[in-house]
């Protein structure tokens, strides 16, 4: 009668470890170092290609820059291509791994409150850092107008909804056509659909759900195979994109952008410190040991700029090195990869204030509060793919009257910032999993006792020793 006594392999899917080991080969091959080298060489070549050196005709330089960017376009396209099926499969598998509806409800509510709270704190840190450093004072708005506006910044932005429209909007979040939501990249609708399907799977017996779970496991492995293929292009992709945008910006503007880049990185560092404080004060763990244990996931995140692509490694790190129970890690991490975008939210706060300063737009406290609200809302359901923060930024800029041309300037240095904020996003997912594991500990121990798995959690020191 008790359908929770299903095969343990559902709770500990073997394909997660296989995918993690495949991605770890990228770490052993020092992919992150190759990406950094590509970034440095691309910046240097872009300076030579740009107007400051005067070695190339501007038209020839533009053509060369576009062709150099071809590996980057393919790299980004491959990652964006697989994010929807990867998130869909991962969330459903993560929910079904719990094999208990009450556990999912408890984790879901706690995680939702935690994600919203930490995202609000993250964007507040970003706004505060930007107001303190004033990075926009080093760039003239006229320089930005001369840049070609990026396609992401030219899309039409809808007005904010009226109060009476909100119930209809909330009802519209549930996809009437899931395939259309997937095709159009409506990630919040994809997440809701995945959660509903995952809960429905819990009502089935293991025998009935096994074929569907096997299909999703195969889909997840296929997506990660594409990720592994795309990673061979990563150094060339970063080189080409950095060369193109450095040549487009010019040396003087690029140097001025250095203050903005440092402001974002400083804000991300403060957010990471906040995570470490949570690790120390609430979880009673060594923050430095946490960073050492999370190293593999952070390096993959830095190399791919995609929280979704990092999920298998994040899940393995959470279970094997951080001692987080599979029922929590396999649910929270796929969910967090889509709706826990704290690093991205912080970046949007800094970028909005920066561009407002560039164009001489004085933001009031009310407008800054509006920026916080929009960024928190927009970060929920954001695709976990490279460069998606630019799309959200366009919406925020339109809401506070900052010219959309500024997006072109942001894109020029977005590669290093995208990799950095993705690493912080992944660190936030791991911290969230650890926090949820502690909050839900009593319920999990009861569930594991029923299943006969054993409710005792290995001591952190033992877990770390085993994993190493």
Describe this structure in words.
The model is unreliable at 1-12, 145-158 and 447-468 (pLDDT under 50). The protein has a single domain, classed as Sodium:dicarboxylate symporter (Proton glutamate symport protein). It is 77% helix and 0% strand. Helix 3 packs parallel to helix 12 (234-249) and helix 4 runs antiparallel to helix 12. The chain is globular, with a radius of gyration of 22 Å. It has helices at 8-11, 14-28, 31-49, 58-68, 70-98, 101-133, 141-145, 166-171, 178-184, 187-202, 206-231, 234-249, 251-281, 287-293, 295-304, 307-321, 326-339, 342-358, 365-379, 388-399, 406-412, 414-439, 441-451, 460-467. It contains 24 helices and no strands. It has 468 residues and is mainly alpha-helical.
Structural class of the secondary structure composition? mainly alpha
Q: What fraction, in percent, of the residue positions are helical?
A: over 70%
- Count of spatially separate domains: 1
Low-confidence stretches: 1-12, 145-158, 447-468
* Helix and strand sequence: HHHHHHHHHHHHHHHHHHHHHHHH
Q: In what range is the share of β-strand residues?
A: under 5%
CATH homologous superfamily name?
Answer: Sodium:dicarboxylate symporter
Characterize the overall form: globular
And the CATH topology?
Proton glutamate symport protein
Pick out its properties:
single chain, 468 residues, mainly alpha, Proton glutamate symport protein, 77% helix, globular, disordered N terminus, disordered C terminus
């Amino acid at each position: 009668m008790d359908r929770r006594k299903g095969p343990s392999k559902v709770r500990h899917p073997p394909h997660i470890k296989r995918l993690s080991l495949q991605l770890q080969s990228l770490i052993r091959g020092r992919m992150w170092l190759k990406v950094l080298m590509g970034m440095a060489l691309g910046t240097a070549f872009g300076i030579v290609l740009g107007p400051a050196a005067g070695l190339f005709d501007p038209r020839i330089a533009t053509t060369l820059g576009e062709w150099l960017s071809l590996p980057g376009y393919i790299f980004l396209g491959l990652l964006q291509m697989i994010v929807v099926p990867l998130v869909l499969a991962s969330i459903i598998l993560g929910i079904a791994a719990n094999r208990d509806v009450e556990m999912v409800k408890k984790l879901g509510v706690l995680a939702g409150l935690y994600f919203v709270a930490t995202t609000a704190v993250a964007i507040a840190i970003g706004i505060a850092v930007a107001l303190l450093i004033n990075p926009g004072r080093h760039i003239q708005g006229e320089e930005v107008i001369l840049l070609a506006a990026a396609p992401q910044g030219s899309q039409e932005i809808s007005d904010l909804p009226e109060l009476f429209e909100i119930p209809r909007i909330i009802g519209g979040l549930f996809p009437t056509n899931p395939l259309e939501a997937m095709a159009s990249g409506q990630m919040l609708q994809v997440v809701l659909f995945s959660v509903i399907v995952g809960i429905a799977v819990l009502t089935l017996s293991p025998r009935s759900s096994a074929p569907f779970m096997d299909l999703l496991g195969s889909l997840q492995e296929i997506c990660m195979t594409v990720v592994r293929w795309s990673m061979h292009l990563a150094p060339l992709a970063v080189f080409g994109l950095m060369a193109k945008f450095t040549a487009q910006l010019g040396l003087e503007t690029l140097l001025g952008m250095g203050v903005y880049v440092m402001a974002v990185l400083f804000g991300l560092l403060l957010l990471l410190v906040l995570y470490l404080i949570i690790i120390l004060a609430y979880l009673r763990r060594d923050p430095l040991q946490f960073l050492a244990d999370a190293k593999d996931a952070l390096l993959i995140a830095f190399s791919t700029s995609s929280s979704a692509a990092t999920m298998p490694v994040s899940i393995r790190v959470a279970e094997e090195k951080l001692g987080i129970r599979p029922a929590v890690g396999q649910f929270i991490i796929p969910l967090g990869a889509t709706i826990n975008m704290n690093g991205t939210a912080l970046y949007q706060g800094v970028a909005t204030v920066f561009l407002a300063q560039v164009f001489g737009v004085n933001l009031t406290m009310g407008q800054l509060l509006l920026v916080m609200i929009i960024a928190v809302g927009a970060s929920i359901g954001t695709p976990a793919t490279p460069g998606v923060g630019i799309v959200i930024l366009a919406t925020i800029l339109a809401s506070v009257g900052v010219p959309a041309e500024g997006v072109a300037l942001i894109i020029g240095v977005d590669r290093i910032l995208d990799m950095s904020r993705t690493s912080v996003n992944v660190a936030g997912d791991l911290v969230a999993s650890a926090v949820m594991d502690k909050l839900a500990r009593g319920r999990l121990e009861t569930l594991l006792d029923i299943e006969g798995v054993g409710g005792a959690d290995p001591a952190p020191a033992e877990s770390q020793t085993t994993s190493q």
